[in-house]
Amino acid sequence: MSQDLWLQNYDATCRLAQEIAENIHERNRQQRTGGNPAKLNMTLRASLQKMKQNVSMLRETLIRASSQRRITQSEADRRQSLLDDLVTKEKQLCASFNRNGTDLDPSRSTLMTGGPGRGAGPGVAANPWLLNEPEETRGLTFGEIKEQQQRIIQAQDAGLDALAAVIGQQKRMGQEIGNELDEQNEVIDDITQLVDKTDGRIRNETQRVKLVETKSASCGMLVVIVLLLIAIVVVASWPT
C-alpha cells in the first residue's frame, strides 16, 4: 500500500532540511577558507523559502485532515509532533544561515543549544542539524555520519536477511508438515473405508445366522408336529 501523501511530503521536507544543513555547512567552510559562497547563498535562500512553504502546506493539510476526520486523533497528534519538530528545525536552519559561518567553527553546537561546544576538536566540521546530538555522532562530519548510518543499515539488512532465512525455513517445515498430514489423512480415509466394508460384512453375516436360526427353529417344530400326528394315528389304530 502506498504511503500517505502527507507523510510523503513530510519526508521530502525532511530531506530538503538535511540538504539545507549540508549546504550551510559547505557555505561556512567556504567563508572560512576565503572562497566565494554567493552561489550557495542564493541556493540556500531558495531552499529555505521552499521549506517554509512546505511546512505551511503540511500544517494546512494536517488541520484539514484532522477537522474532516480523515485520520484518527492519535495520528493527528503524532503528525503535529512531527510538524512541531520540523518547524523548530526550520527556525534553526534560518538562524544558522543568517549567522556568520566563522562563529560555528569553534563551537559546533552553539546553534542548537545556545551555549558553547561540547568537546568538538579543532578543525571538526559543524553539523547544524541535530538538536540533541548523540554521543555516537559527536565530533563527526556529515560524511562520517553517513558512513556510520550506512554501516548500521547494512547490519540491519544482515539481520533481516537472517530473519528471512529463518522464516523461509519455518515455511518449508510447515509445508512438509502439511504434506505429511495430507498423507496421514489419506491413510485414515482408507482405514475408514475398510472398516465400513468390514462392518457391512459383519451385518450381513449376522442376518444370515439369524435366518438359519429361524429356519432351524421352524424345522424342529415341524418334526414335533409330525411325531404327534404319528402318535395319534397309532393310538387310534389300537383295538378297543
TrEMBL record:
CDD domains: SNARE_Syntaxin8. InterPro entries: Syntaxin (IPR045242), Syntaxin-8_SNARE (IPR041875), T_SNARE_dom (IPR000727). Gene3D superfamilies: 1.20.5.110. Residues 150-212 form the T-SNARE coiled-coil homology domain. This is Syntaxin-8. Belongs to the syntaxin family. It comes from Electrophorus electricus. The keyword Coiled coil applies. It is a single-pass type IV membrane protein. Its main location: membrane. One of its GO terms (biological process) is intracellular protein transport. It holds the Pfam family SNARE. Keywords: Coiled coil, Membrane, Phosphoprotein, Transmembrane, Transmembrane helix, Transport, Ubl conjugation. The keyword Nucleotide-binding does not apply. Coiled coil: none annotated. Vesicle trafficking protein that functions in the early secretory pathway, possibly by mediating retrograde transport from cis-Golgi membranes to the ER. It is found in: Membrane. GO terms for cellular component: late endosome; SNARE complex. GO terms for molecular function: SNAP receptor activity; SNARE binding.
